[in-house]
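call fold(seq) -> tokens
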Amino acid sequence: MTHKAIHAFKWSALGEIASRAIGPLVFLVLARLLVPEDFGVVAAATVVISFSQVFSDAGLAKALIQRHDRVEESANVVFWLNLVIGLVIVTFLFFGAHFIADFFHDERIALVVQVLSLQILLAAFSSVHTALLQKDLNFKPLFWVRLVTTTAPGLASIPLAINGMGYWALVFGTLLGQMAQSAALWMFSPWRPHGRLDRNLATELVAFGKWAMLSGLIGWFYGWMDAIVVGHYLGPHDMGIYRTGNTFVTMIFGLIFSPLLPVLYSAFSRVRHDLSKVAESLLLVVKGIAMVAFPISAGLIALRAPIEQFVFRDEWGGIGMVIAILALVQGFSWLVGSNGEAYRGVGKPHIETWAMALSLTAYFIGYVFSVHYGLLVFLLSRLAMVFIGLLGQFVVSKFVFHLRMKDFVLAGHKSIIISFLMLSSIHVFASPSGDNAFNLICAVVVGLFFYAGLIGLVERDYIARLKTILRNDSTMSK
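ret:
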């Protein structure tokens, strides 16, 4: 399992890197060809589509990955259920599109919602193929699917934008990407549906999937609630600074850690009957995440001024502060970032759902209270609430895996201490104001080398263990 998980992570990481490298390049080209209003029309429609996609899968793909018996029959049930649910949602979106447009005060959004709703059917048509490949830890074909899916929208959107198609260039590019994804998955996966359905099996899958769906719904609110609160109380300017800074930080952490999550879920599912092995693997992952996440946080804090000055320029005053605080938020949050995959992997998705729901309630109260005192207080409040969320996750982990808070602290404390020693050394040798950006960047590079050397010394046993796993993986791959 370790060999397959490491091998899968390499291909999952390549897919994530490819998508996050190509996507921003396409975006920059389109940003020069289109106006902000074009992006606004599509973004408003995309919020609705993304909300609908939480329901369209109904958590059934997660249920399929977790299943160990009657996999073929389960896959068939999931395929037809997803198509039926997708048709129902597309029908609602088609007839409700004008109400959505009225909510956003732009009638153009109605037709865009109707056209983009086809994404839901296309995704339902191929979701089982994705789930089966993930279940088998077969991420190599998923890499090629991801590459095709990322490249196709640019190939369509850029020529259409050059020819004056405006926001329709983005719409048709998105649809082409989804069509390319579905076609590639059917080509790479040998699985095909048939007409027989088992009602009892469907009931079992829905019972598991409803918790994954509810978790996804809560995740949607979790991802958007903060920006909505900032926009409502502080206006579009602060919302733009906050959301863009958040996207910038999330993009960096996501590039590194997002490929890990689907691999972890599949790996935990394989050993779900041995909770001690799941717990041991979870701590192994937490230590590795901490070793990477905290130096990134420290580096972003140190570079906040030149990032604001040279990446976003004068119009984005204050975004450096947003990036610095949210870098800390992301660093600490990722300490328990893989816990949800472990809960679902051992067949207890409802635990993550309840944990997220309770956190969401607390966050909402904290957001609404703190936002009245300005963006800085809101950001500091969000950082404080992360520690409250961590305590909640530690309690749940003790209940499920018999892991103590001490276990998580011991897994990450060395990385935290050394990262902030690195940050202190950077501030000693270079001014954090960004007046001499070259010296600051050099200090950060030296600090990272300092961190790598020191962490390599204090975590040499852990690194040796990782090297052994990777060496064995390389040998088995030949």
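Residues 223-478 form one domain.
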